[in-house]
Specification:
This protein has 262 residues and is α/β, with parallel strands linked by helices. It has eleven helices and ten strands.
Length: 262
């Protein structure tokens, strides 16, 4: 197993607030599907944002694809970010643009500013966008405005936009938090398929423990900015859930028997 991402003793403090992350330490291997779970405010989003340096850590080291992310200069950071696709809870699409234009935005990180501003995409890039949208079941919506789509469709555009970068890793920040159960399942199935068939590493923040248990190769549980569990879904116990979620654990009503049996 080859490590693609190493998070070493990472801490983050916003101003003089309490530590949002404290000495976070874990490794994600190439092709792995890893979920980060924890209660609201545990630090899940902050952690993902540190990994692609949307925010800077206060201390610690993040190594992605053999690069020390915190030490990268502007150009190198731009290049590294093209290897990390990101999808968001609220999709972050450009509403007035079509599905295919939103998808093509994913290649902007690799282009000069001028080419990007003029929307100059190569034939190959356009073909790739069409192929991706077809594979995500969005072929017939290609020229529809993004704001005319359902939430699940918008998130699939988000996935297409991330995949067109040819990323090594996908960071997914609460990708199903705004979706109904059916759409959520479709999105999770696509993410799992991406990891299995394309070998892309997936690191996903989730609120839904049952979903994390069902889809992940490994789970990282965080509480108050600290890792309190790391392991495969079949090793997680009620006590671990309690450590991760504290007093909220009883409301989660997770049947570990079902998960461990499947
Ligand atoms: N830009 C910021 N400035 C100040 N504090 C912040 C900022 N971003 C996050 N925090 C704080 O850091 C802590 C962790 O927040 P974060 O959003 O990472 O948690 P989370 O686990 O993703 O929560 P949720 O599941 O509700 O999205 C919280 O106490 C939050 O208030």
């Amino acid at each position: 197993m080859t490590a693609l991402l190493q998070v070493n003793q990472v801490s983050k403090q916003f101003g003089n607030d309490a530590m949002a992350l404290s000495n976070i330490e874990f490794t994600v291997n190439e092709g792995e599907f890893v979920s980060i779970i924890g209660p609201s405010g545990a630090g899940k989003s902050t952690l993902l944002r540190c990994i692609n340096r949307m925010i800077d850590t206060t201390s610690g080291d993040i190594i992605f694809d053999n690069q020390h992310v915190m030490k990268l200069k502007k150009k190198e950071l731009k290049l590294t970010r093209t290897k990390i696709g990101m999808i968001f809870q609220h999709y972050n699409l450009v509403h007035r643009l079509s599905v295919i234009e939103n998808t093509l935005h994913g290649v902007l990180g690799k282009k000069s500013t001028i080419a990007g501003v003029l929307g100059l995409y190569s034939q190959e890039e356009k073909q790739q966008a069409v192929k991706l949208l077809d594979s995500l079941g969005l072929g017939e919506f290609m020229y529809k405005r993004a704001d005319q789509l359902s939430g699940g469709q918008k998130q699939r555009v988000g996935i297409a936009r991330a995949l067109i970068q040819n990323p090594k890793m996908m960071l997914c920040d609460e990708p199903i938090a705004s979706l109904d159960p059916n759409s959520a399942k479709t999105i999770m199935d696509h993410l799992k398929n991406i990891s299995k068939t394309m070998g892309i590493t997936v690191l996903v923040n989730l609120h839904q423990v049952d979903v994390a248990l069902r889809y992940s190769d490994r789970i990282i549980g965080i509480n108050s900015g600290r890792v309190v569990f790391q392991g495969t879904p079949n090793t997680i116990t009620k006590e671990h859930i309690q450590q991760i979620y504290g007093s909220e654990a009883d409301d989660l009503m997770i049947d570990l028997g079902d998960i461990h049996a499947s």
